[in-house]
Amino acid sequence: MNGVSDTGAATQQRAKTPQAGQPTAVGLGRYGYLVQRWRTRRALLALSDQHLRDIGLSREQAIAEGSKPFWKA
User: Fold this and answer.
1) How far apart are the C-alpha atoms of 15 and 59, rounded to whole Å?
2) How far apart are CA 3 and CA 25, in angstroms?
């Protein structure tokens, strides 16, 4: 491959990277993003206190975030 092709491929790859404020579930659409948010918040509520400490959250913070409706950011 020549340098032009490599540069083009790298540019295309960067274009697919989610930006701030965009869903992390690229390709799932709005519905998939909301489902992912719902599952993530449920998983957060299921973490033990030790796991929460490992990620730098208190139980109160986890409850506050995990209790939000899936449609709220």
Assistant:
1) 37
2) 31
pLDDT tens digits, 21-67: 554 556 678 889 899 999 999 999 999 999 999 999 999 999 999 99
Amino acid making up residue 54: D
Please report the sign of the dihedral spanned by the C-alpha atoms of residue 20, residue 24, residue 29, residue 34. negative
Cβ count near 72 (within 10 Å): 7
C-alpha torsion sign, points 37, 40, 45, 49: negative
This model's pTM is above 0.70: no
Sequence spans of domains, the chain: 29-73
More confident residue, 61 or 9: 61
Residue type, 8: G
Q: Is residue 49 within 8 Å of residue 71, measured between CB atoms?
A: no
